[in-house]
Amino acid sequence: MARVRVVVLSVLVFTLVAVLAACSSSPSTGGLTVTVSGLPSGVDAAVTVTMGSYSQTVTTTTTLSGLAPGSYTVTPQAVTLRRNAFNGTATSTTVTVVANATVTDAVSYAVQKGDLWVPDSTNNAVDMFAAATLGATSTPTATITSSLSNDRVVAFDASGNLWVANENAGTITEYAAASLTSNPSPAATITTGGTPVGLAFDASGNLWVTDHNGNTASEYPAASLTSSPSAIRTISGLNGPESLAFDASGNLWLVNWGNSTISEYTAASLASTPTVGATITSGLNTPEGLAFDADGNLWVGSQNSGTVLRYAAASLTANPSPAATITTGTTNNVGVTFDVDGNLWVTHQGTTADEYAAADIAGTGSLTPTAVATISGFSAAAQMPAFDPQPYNLPLSH
Fold first, then answer.
1. How far is CA 227 from CA 105, 173, 191, 222, 326, in A?
2. CA torsion angle for 353, 357, 362, 366 (degrees, to 10)?
3. In this model, does residue 380 exceed pLDDT 90?
4. CATH of the domain at 105
5. C-alpha torsion 388→133→300→332, nearest 10
6. Last residue of a domain, one of 111, 131, 157
7. Which residues contact 314 (CB under 8 A, 6 or more apart)?
8. For the whole prediction, is pTM greater than 0.85?
9. What is the distance between the alpha carbons of residues 20 and 285, in angstroms, rounded to a whole number?
């Protein structure tokens, strides 16, 4: 009996030694946590983690486990939301994974700023100021002059093509996205027969145009914009209409310069008989430029008062008083637009355009912010400048 116990014990010892030997000959694994920040909700990251034949794509904060020890390369790829590029940066592009531990690498995304396009109606030109130098120089990176005539308004469609309203010529010209920096000739021309001074694209890509002297606003269908389209819908009975803009719900807001009012046309009615849903009169004095910010507040440039007014999103349908009055110290505040960081840009129908920091215009009541940047050199910086790409966080951005 004693001999059997010895044999069994010897077998057990041998088996244990063999198992330990096998474990020591197989390398232990580790883990890598990749944290992702800076992207809007619902937008996936694109981060590749590689070593040798191993490759894994990370779309959100993730822990990769069971990795062989070694040096892994972490490469963020750019991602796009409505033509806005988000570029990623990793804290470490090379990360060493060790056995029995988890290391962390952080990837931060930041949105690429857009270029600012400003119509200069007196010079019959549209000037582009590149994002990289915006505010640091008054020299445009590109200028378009071909076929322009008292151009006061610019707008971009979903493909990045530039559309310009020529008030004196009664035309709207399109310039192809790929050719914008080379003073191109128009890729298409719409003859309105009126005095176009306002442009806006709806969510379906249809183009809405105001005719100041004709007191109308007309819709041109997306499918025929490049082939001499006719208006398929017209709002009549306006009073010197100027700028127009869509809110996040698809309602159309329109400035009546002649009687200092702003009218809303409900989204539900625009496909048939446009109907006024709300009217704003409080605080207005010859309004011109019109824009919504990322929170849905409505901003209005005032031609004669030297102010820009902000109307709170929650109160727009009740003829609100301005929640804030921004005094710029310069009259003829005719154009308003926002960059992707929420900074306000104002053109003055003169020689300058100024930037006001988001933090300086966030309060209520009377505000007198100081411009943090100025570009100049225009003869008459007109009423609707635009960023390309249009900031992704604005209503109906493309």
1. 52, 12, 11, 10, 42
2. -50
3. no
4. 2.60.40
5. -130
6. 111
7. none
8. yes
9. 86
